[in-house]
């Protein structure tokens, strides 16, 4: 296995000024490992829209120099997390271990799974649980409806918070300053002609979610797809997660979501809240 060493300055393990900040520009403790931070930034850059990367792609997405990105990618290949065909780097199954460490120890996902499955069986649509992570909704539990064409994202998938039902619900419990911080973390753009992609329109949509106790994203992520989400609060009343259902908008109208699906999602959220 190839060993990749990060340069140090002075005492062994001491970070240079450039290394004392992670790729996002945040200060990091002196004891932090710059190489690890860079590698994790590249791992996090993989997603549905970036299933494979070149060195240039990784450098751009993780905000690294090309040599640093290349060292990190080759190290991940050596460790069995990535495959390399000479140009592109792609994730291998071992990458699943990183996410499963959280999913297998989170009591929230363990409690939620049977409830999501029950709701899926009642609604005949896919039902999910998501949490907020730096401007994105991350799906940590899911009960998938069996269909020829699946709806929504898979377990571990991420959606921009500004235009997703789960994201707006998760943001609705925060202060305006905190909301703006999350919105700034993800550049807003029109994914469809229906996408709300300006700060003022998104803030109004989040305020409406807070007022109504639920949010609907109607063909904002993809034409023909809609979703509804409700909050799950912890014992202190803060929003900890969001339960959502994703549907084909041609089969399930917004009116049906509000009249028939909303009570089921609220019941799931209430049972989760009692268990937290």
Automatic annotation (TrEMBL):
Q: Which GO terms describe its biological process?
A: 3,4-dihydroxybenzoate metabolic process; negative regulation of DNA-templated transcription; positive regulation of DNA-templated transcription
Under SMART domains, the record lists: HTH_ICLR (SM00346)
PROSITE patterns xref list: ICLR_ED (PS51078)
Q: Which UniProt keywords apply?
A: DNA-binding, Transcription, Transcription regulation
Q: Where is this region: Disordered?
A: 1-29
Quote the Pfam families the UniProt record gives: HTH_IclR (PF09339), IclR_C (PF01614)
Q: Where is the IclR-ED domain?
A: 94-276
InterPro entries reported in the protein's UniProt record: GAF-like_dom_sf, HTH_MetabolicPath_Reg, PcaR_PcaU, Tscrpt_reg_IclR_C, Tscrpt_reg_IclR_N, WH-like_DNA-bd_sf, WH_DNA-bd_sf
In alphabetical order, the GO MF annotations are: DNA binding; DNA-binding transcription factor activity
What NCBIfam families does the record point to?
A: pcaR_pcaU
Q: Output this protein's name.
A: Beta-ketoadipate pathway transcriptional regulator, PcaR/PcaU/PobR family
């Amino acid at each position: 296995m190839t060993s990749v060493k990060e340069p140090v300055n002075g005492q062994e393990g001491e970070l240079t000024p450039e290394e004392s900040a992670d790729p996002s520009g945040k200060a990091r403790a002196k004891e932090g490992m710059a190489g690890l931070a860079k590698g994790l930034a590249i791992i996090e850059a993989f997603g549905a829209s970036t299933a494979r990367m070149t060195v240039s792609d990784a450098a751009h997405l993780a905000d690294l120099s090309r040599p640093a990105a290349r060292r990190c990618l080759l190290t991940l290949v050596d460790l069995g997390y990535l495959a390399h065909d000479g140009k592109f780097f792609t994730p291998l199954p071992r990458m699943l271990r990183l996410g499963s460490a959280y999913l297998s120890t989170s009591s929230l996902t363990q409690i939620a799974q049977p409830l999501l499955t029950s709701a899926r069986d009642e609604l005949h649509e896919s039902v999910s649980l998501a949490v907020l992570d730096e401007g994105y909704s991350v799906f940590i539990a899911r009960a998938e409806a069996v269909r020829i064409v699946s709806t929504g994202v898979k377990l571990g998938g991420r959606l921009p918070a500004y235009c997703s039902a789960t994201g707006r619900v998760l943001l609705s419990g925060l202060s305006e300053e905190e909301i703006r911080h999350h919105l700034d973390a993800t550049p807003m753009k029109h994914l469809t002609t229906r996408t709300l992609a300006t700060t003022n329109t998104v803030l109004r949509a989040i305020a409406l979610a807070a007022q109504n106790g639920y949010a609907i994203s109607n063909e904002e992520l993809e034409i023909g797809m809609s979703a509804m989400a409700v909050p799950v609060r912890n014992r202190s009343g803060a929003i900890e997660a969001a339960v959502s259902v994703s549907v084909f908008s041609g089969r399930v109208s917004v009116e049906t979501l509000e009249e028939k699906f909303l009570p089921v999602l609220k019941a799931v959220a209430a049972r989760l809240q009692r268990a937290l």
